[in-house]
Specification:
The chain is an alpha/beta fold. The chain has a single domain, classed as Glycosidases (TIM Barrel). It has helices at about 1-5, 30-40, 60-75, 105, 120-130, 165, 185-205, 225-230, 235-255, 290-295, 300-305, 325-335, 365-375, 390, 400-405; strands spanning about 40-45, 80-90, 135-140, 170-175, 180, 210, 265, 310, 340-350, 380-385. It has an 8-stranded parallel barrel with strand order 1-2-3-6-7-8-9-10, surrounded by 5 helices. It has a two-stranded antiparallel ribbon with strand order 4-5. It is globular.
C-alpha cells in the first residue's frame, strides 16, 4: 500500500489512441446474418448486496467456484457471449488489488482476502474462455458505500484502513441517499478511478472496462468548495460537473485503448433528456434524465467518440406510456448512427413475472419481443440483461424464450 501511495504522487500521463470501429453497415441478407452472428449477448452479474455473486458473504472457495461455473453454464445455454462482472461495487474489489481492499461482499469483512487467495475475476476469465464467453469488468466509479436514507452508511471509520476513502477523507462526500461518494470534482478522485482501471488492464485478460450509471448522485451534492477551487470559467456548477464526468470518460477511453483489443463502454439510465426539457431529447417523460440528474452527457460521449459502445438501460416495455421501449431504441439508434460507437440495449430481465410492472411482463415473452425489435431496427448491435436472478430461476420460462430469440 505504501508503494501505491508513493505512486499517487506522480502525474498520470495518458496516451490517446484512435479507435478503429468494426460496425457492419448495410441491410442486405448476408450482412444482416453477419450482424446477428456478431451481436453482443451479455448479462450483468451483480456483487453488491450479494445479489448474484457470491450468494452470501463468507461462502467457501469451492462454493464460489461452483457459483461462477453455474453462471457461465447458464449463460452458455442461453447463447450469451459476454458477462459484465461487478468487480468494484463500491470502493472495494472482487479481484487482487493493491489499490482497493477486498470486498466486504466476499468474506463479510472489507480487506479480508478469500481463503486460499481465491481471485473471482481471474477464475471467471479462465472459465469463460473455455465457453467462448468474454468478461467485462464492471465498475461503479465514485460510490464508496451503499445505503439508504432510512439506513444510512456514512461512517468512514467502518471501512478497511486501506480503503482510499480512509486514506483521502477530503475526497469523501456524504449524500442524502445514505451513501458516501468520492467527489468527482476533485482531480484525485478521478485519478483513483483511472489507476484502478489501469491495474485491471495490467493484471487481467479482460474484454472490456464497463461503467454503470453512477456518476453524480441524483439530488443535492455538497461540492461547493470544490467548485470554488476548480470551477473558474464555467457558467454554472452544473456545467462544471458535466465537464468533470466528461474528463473521466475521455481519459478512461484513452487509457483502455492503450491495451489492444479491449473496449470501453457505459450503461447509463435509459433517458438522456426528455424532449420537454431539451429539444434534442427523446419523446419520453422519465423521472431521471442523465444529462440533468447525473451530469452525464451520454449523447455527447457518443458524438465525440469517447466510447466503444453505449448500453442505455431501457428498462420499460414496448408501449410503455411514459418511456416506450421502441421510442427509446429508435432515439438511441439515431444517436449512434454514423459513428463508430456500438449500441447495446440494457434489458430489464428482472421485471419478468412482476405483475406490478404491467401485463406485458407476465407472458415471459417481452424480452423476446424486444430482441426482435432490436434486430428489425437495424441499428442495435446487441443486448445486456439485468438481473441474472430471473434468468437463473427461469421465471416464466425466460431461459427458453431468450435462448430461442438468440438462435
Amino acid at each position: 500500500m505504501k508503494k501505491w501511495i508513493a505512486k499517487l504522487c506522480l502525474v498520470t500521463v495518458v496516451v490517446s489512441f484512435l479507435f478503429a470501429g468494426y460496425y457492419l453497415p448495410g441491410d442486405n441478407g448476408q450482412q444482416a446474418e453477419a450482424a446477428v452472428q456478431e451481436e453482443l449477448r451479455g448479462v450483468w452479474i451483480a456483487s453488491v448486496y450479494n445479489i448474484d455473486f457470491p450468494s452470501r458473504q463468507g461462502v467457501s472457495t469451492a462454493q464460489m467456484k461452483q457459483e461462477l461455473t453455474d453462471i457461465l453454464d447458464k449463460a452458455e445455454a442461453m447463447h450469451f457471449n459476454a458477462v459484465f462482472f461487478q468487480v468494484r461495487p463500491t470502493a472495494d474489489a472482487l479481484y487482487r488489488s493493491d489499490l482497493y481492499p477486498w470486498s466486504v461482499y466476499l468474506t463479510g469483512t472489507q480487506g479480508q482476502a478469500p481463503a486460499q487467495g481465491f481471485d473471482p475475476l481471474a477464475y471467471l476469465i479462465t472459465e469463460g474462455k473455455k465457453r467462448g464467453i468474454s468478461v467485462h469488468a464492471w465498475i461503479n466509479p465514485y460510490k464508496i458505500t451503499r445505503g439508504s436514507a432510512a439506513k444510512p452508511n456514512l461512517d468512514v471509520s467502518k471501512l478497511s484502513k486501506e480503503n482510499p476513502a480512509r486514506l483521502y477523507p477530503d475526497l469523501v462526500v456524504p449524500h442524502s441517499s445514505g451513501e458516501l461518494y468520492f467527489n468527482p470534482g476533485e482531480p484525485m478522485s478521478r485519478y483513483l478511478v483511472l489507476q484502478g482501471v489501469k491495474e485491471l488492464l495490467d493484471r487481467y485478460d479482460l474484454a472490456g472496462i464497463h461503467y454503470d450509471d453512477y456518476f453524480y448522485p441524483t439530488g443535492s451534492f455538497d461540492d461547493g468548495d470544490a467548485f470554488a477551487k476548480y470551477g473558474q470559467g464555467y457558467a454554472s456548477i452544473e456545467d462544471w460537473r458535466r465537464h468533470n464526468v466528461d474528463l473521466l470518460i475521455q481519459e478512461t477511453y484513452q487509457l483502455v485503448h492503450q491495451k489492444q483489443g479491449v473496449v470501453f463502454g457505459v450503461s447509463p439510465a435509459g433517458v438522456w433528456a426528455n424532449q420537454t426539457t431539451n429539444a434534442a431529447g427523446s419523446n419520453t417523460s422519465a423521472g431521471v434524465e442523465t444529462y440533468y440528474d447525473h451530469y452525464a452527457d451520454t449523447r455527447k460521449w457518443v458524438q465525440k467518440g469517447w466510447l466503444d459502445y453505449i448500453a442505455p438501460q431501457i428498462y420499460w416495455q414496448i408501449g410503455h406510456k411514459q418511456c416506450d421501449y421502441a421510442t427509446l431504441v429508435d432515439w438511441w439508434s439515431n444517436v449512434t448512427k454514423g459513428t463508430d460507437v456500438k449500441l447495446y440495449i440494457g434489458h430489464a430481465a428482472y421485471k419478468t413475472g412482476d405483475s406490478a410492472q404491467g401485463t406485458q411482463w407476465m407472458d415471459g415473452l417481452e424480452l423476446q419481443r424486444q430482441i426482435a425489435y432490436n434486430r428489425a431496427n437495424g441499428g442495435v448491435d446487441g443486448s445486456i440483461f439485468y438481473g441474472y436472478g430471473a434468468l437463473k430461476n427461469n421465471t416464466l420460462g425466460i431461459q427458453n424464450s431468450v435462448a430461442a430469440a438468440f438462435q
